[in-house]
Amino acid sequence: MLSFGPVTYMDVQKTGCTFISDVLKKTLNLQPIVEIKHGRFDRSKTADDFVIISRRDPYSQWVSLYNYGCMNLGWLYVRLKSFGLSDQLYTRNKEGLNAFVSYLLHSQNSHLLGEGYQQSKHLDLGFQSYRYLAMSLAKPSSVYQHFKTPADLMENFQNYSIINFEIRTSRLNSDLNHLLTQVIPQYVRKDVSVKEIIAGSSFGNESIKFVSVDDLAPSTRGLIEIKEKLLLNLGIND
User: Fold this and answer.
1) How many domains does the chain have?
2) Distances in Å between the alpha carbon of 135 and those of 12, 58, 144, 202?
């Protein structure tokens, strides 16, 4: 979470958040007040809050998460290593990718992932959808129980979401430009070129591409379609 006071960015993992944070810091005429990497919105939203989030399709998000772990990087890699699973899952090939995704999408393994994931176990959410959900709610740990079933979540998610604007990774530059020039121009510095800053900003730690989305097996894709329905539904018109 990167909060500038009236503007807050919810930085979901593996959605270009380093790049987006860099652009916002360089373009907004506001100073960061709170910066907690991947933090939650643990207060009530007010009428003065404008909340931004970034979203990525879950297929490429899972692949990016796997590639990052294959570099021995990331909180999830460290956690899986502590359970003695890193050598088994991070094999840097398509077999390892499919084993990794399938293993972590099964509900009985939710305890391996941390981040409060088990609080949403009754919703049968994939990990990427859970991360998005957790960062799109105010005081999320107290809200999950409002959704009684997976179908209830799909139907009523928007009633609880605090998000005012989504930056889609598939349209990263254009969504950022639209946000800054058309949606919240009152918060943008007058002495900068939004287009130039977007063009010159850093993506941070980019993963080596050991595997790609094309390496996802049909069975793995099918599992993602079932478990990551929240993200897929949100992106249906992307």
Assistant:
1) 1
2) 7, 16, 12, 23
